[in-house]
Amino acid sequence: MTAFKAIQALEVVLADAGYGRTKIENVDRGSLRLRLKAWLDGDDGQIAQQAAKNKLGEAAVIADRWAKDFTVNKQRAEISAINANTAYQLMESVKDVENVALQMDEWLIVKYKDAKGEPICSVRKLTVTELSVLDRSPGILNNPSKTLDNLSLLAYEQENGLAVES
Question: What are the residues whose beta carbons fall under 8 Å from the beta carbon of 152, sequence distance 6 or more?
Fold first, then answer.
């Protein structure tokens, strides 16, 4: 009965909005928005059914996307935890060394003192391009204070077809 009263009130609003007279044949449980859409489209329920199917399809896509995002985000979180632990272990392994530039698989550890005598330390995973550069030019690891700059420059040159062997 409440739904019927709401629909009657809506009928008045629709008439005032210029949609003319709507016809209420029956009131079933369900979405008032879909029923309204059917009335506005001047249809006996086919458009409402199509709108419901579309809405269900959208909900299915959203649910599928959420499930994939949840799975991917969980995997990313696990990988991030592994990477953070690896970086920590690598930092610990060079804590007593003043100058070092060391590649361990896809990881690069660089530690040196800057011009003010302050320690600079970096541990990070290498990109495919950087791995290729280090395979071709391992000598850039010989000077830790310039390793990151040289690696960045050579990687840029390689990616842009300007690669020069060092």
Answer: none
Tell me the C-alpha distance between 141 and 136, whole Å. Answer: 12
Residue type, 114: D
Q: What is the pTM of this model?
A: 0.49
Nearest CA to 102 out of 138, 58, 154 is that of 138
**pLDDT tens digit string along 52-96?**
667 767 777 777 777 777 777 788 888 888 888 888 888 888 888
**Cβ–Cβ < 8 Å for 32, 22:** no
Per-residue pLDDT band for 126 (boundaries 50, 70, 90) equals very high
Beta bridge partners of 101: 110
- Cα 123 to Cα 119: distance, rounded to the nearest angstrom: 13
Q: Coil, strand or helix: which one is 65? A: helix
> What element of type H or E holds 14?
helix 2-16
